[in-house]
Amino acid sequence: MTDMDMDRSARVEQMRQKYRNGKGQDTEGQPPREQMDLRQLAFFPLAIFYMELVLRQWSAHYFFGLRLIYVLLFSFAVGMVCNLIVSLGPDHIRRKVHVATLIVITIIFLIQIGFYGIFRSYAGMAQLSVAQDAVTDFFMESLRTIGSAALPMLLTLLPLALFQALGLWKKRPIQSTNGLIRASVVMVALHVVAISSVLLNTYGLAPVSSLYREHFTLDRAVPTFGLITGLRLDVQYSLFGRPEIDVSELLYVTVTPTPAPTPTEPDDPYEEPEPIVFGYNVLDIDFEALLETETNQQVREMHEFFMNRRPTPQNEWTGRFEGYNLILFMGEAFHTLAIHPEITPTIYRMFNEGFQFTNFYTPDTGFSTTGGEFAMMTSLIPRHVNAFPNTARMYMPFAFGNMFQAEGVGTFAYHNWTYSFYRRDLSHPNMGYIWRALGNGLPITRMWPTSDLEMIEVSVDDFINLDRFHVYYVTVSGHLEYNFGGNAMAHRHQDAVAHLPYSLGPRAYLATHIELELALAYLIERLDEVGQLERTVFAIIPDHYPYGLSVAEMEELGGAPLLDPLIDVHHSAFILWSASMTEPIVVDTFGSFYDVLPTIANLFAFPFDSRLLMGVDLLSGADAFVPFASRSWVSQLGRFNSRTGQFTPHPHIDPELIPEDHPEQMMARFNLLEVFSVRILEHDYYRRVLGNQ
């Protein structure tokens, strides 16, 4: 063999060696350029998916389903992102990043498990504003929640323990440039497949694609896309805003021009009484003039919508309580289940002797107590946990406090917990109230939860001797958890419920509401003593359903199974009672806390424009509509479950009489009400159209 042939053979062998090196094969005296450790490569995708499953089992009402595929796809895509991050940089830095990345992800899941245990929702960007108050004000409750959530929290820590035990932090998951490139391609491909499959899912009235974009809520997104993707979208939309629904085609679909008032026909034509002509609850707003000068397209659409929207009519109940006092309660976790003839006889009497709203709901808003309170007090749909405090800088003429103040009536608001929680110290004074709470002039004993009765006892003398007054109480005695060890109110009244044939949770729940019962009985007694009882209206509205009880416990206490837990847990009670009423009034209209403001405003004959509110007067005969943050809804003809995608007529409704496009019409109505609720706040709309009145 010539020297030239030997050189050629050496070069060929060198090329073969180089090729084998590139494939990750060992060569004598050289480490491989790439040796993929599947354990390391698969760890982050599997660990994230596993933690998603633990959270899903702990918090969601359902576990399996087609949407679990989205969680899997996004988990693996995020896992590949983590693999790329922890494969970069020198080893001494990379190893620290590797460990820190898993620790941060684990802490995120642990926080969400704990937060959900207290508030039955997930913590996103919006909740950061109340995070400090939540930690300090609910410290002991947080500790108890950690105790009850010990199992899911321990299970969440399992990947971190395996990561350490197997020493997976010591090596790079991806060790070569080619490997990084291939991993990047896989990561992008997973994200493209996941996002495309979501955006292409446009089927049904509440499609997955709309949840990913314009109808995003964190509470719905987490069970559908997973926590990490839900938080990513939450941050994105919090910083840059969500895509808005195009309402231009909807404006003329679900609204009808204002009809002229028609006289009521007399029952007996021979008597020929003077016909009663009912007008409408509207104010003098020249929308046409506003349209001529408005340049903002969003505001122009608002003018068009409200100008053409049908207002609610006045009726036989208009002004029934004109000149009366109003004592309004937002009852913490109050529910029909708390109305018991033996345990809460005063509440039972008020419910059965007043207006009986038999189809009343407190639908989920996505924001727990503050969402329900905002809905009740403004008749607008919230899309942010700070919706209420954001009203502090806005003109709110339809707030109860401001409407009573306009008549020269003294207005007071009280809360037996921290005065600044949910920044009520900002919102409530702007709603027309003198605001007093724990830490702000309300001298009550601090315990958990505090006493509704004590709140009444220390505040009643502020207003009871006035000629007229309006008082708003935000209660807390009915708060979870429902046990006799960590709940002071349940412990206080444990003996009173010991004989009831219920398990621990239902008995403790009823026990907490004995404190509200005693508060109402005491207030009624004091009003009667000074001759104000006959001239006072009581309204009690829940903030949300008692999510401290399981569905099984609610069914136990209610004595019957819930036909549709997603919706039926929110079927609740609205008490509206005055000692001056001579008989109960049954109202079977399907409504919710969005309808409280226009209903009470009409009874007190307050001037307001019903076109600018999202609810309706439940006594007017108008079609109310119950929207849920889950995109479910209840109309006068039936209900739509967004989880199943099914519309079901009410049992008393003949399906043949329901228009074929009714579900589509109601979803369009939902979209309009939601969009314009948001715009009213964004544009300080009431100031624009009513600021000079």
What does it look like?
The chain has 28 helices and 15 strands. The strands form 3 sheets. Strands 5-4-6-1-7-9-2-10 form an 8-stranded mixed sheet, with helices on both faces. Strands 12-13-14-15 form a 4-stranded antiparallel sheet, with helices on one face. The N and C termini lie far apart (108 Å). α3 packs antiparallel against α9 and α13 packs antiparallel against α14. It is α/β, with parallel strands linked by helices. About 4% of the residues have low confidence. 46% of the residues lie in helices and 9% in strands.
Classify the beta-strand content into a percent band: 5-15%
Structural class: alpha/beta
Radius of gyration, taken over Cα atoms and rounded to an integer in Å:
30 Å
Number of strands: 15
Largest sheet composition: 8 strands, mixed
Q: What order do the strands of the largest sheet run in, or round the barrel if closed?
A: 5-4-6-1-7-9-2-10
- Portion of residues within helices: 40-55%
Helix run count:
28
Apparent shape? globular
CA distance, first residue to last residue = 108 Å
> What low-confidence regions span 5 or more consecutive residues with pLDDT below 50?
22-36, 254-264
Calculate the mean pLDDT score and round it.
88
Which helices and strands, and how do they pair?
Layout: H1 3-22, H2 38-59, H3 68-85, H4 91-119, H5 128-137, H6 139-148, H7 150-156, H8 158-165, H9 177-199, H10 208-212, H11 218-225, H12 227-240, H13 287-293, H14 297-308, E1 325-331, H15 345-353, E2 355-357, E3 360-361, H16 368-378, H17 387-390, H18 400-405, E4 410-418, H19 424-430, E5 434-438, H20 452-459, E6 469-474, H21 488-492, H22 494-497, H23 504-529, E7 536-542, H24 551-558, H25 565-568, E8 571-572, E9 575-578, E10 585-587, E11 591-592, H26 596-603, E12 626-627, E13 633-634, E14 638-641, E15 646-649, H27 662-682, H28 685-690
Parallel strand pairs: 1-6, 1-7, 2-10, 3-11, 4-5, 4-6
Antiparallel strand pairs: 2-9, 3-8, 7-9, 12-13, 13-14, 14-15
Helix pairs in contact: 2-3, 2-4, 3-9, 4-6, 11-12, 13-14, 20-23
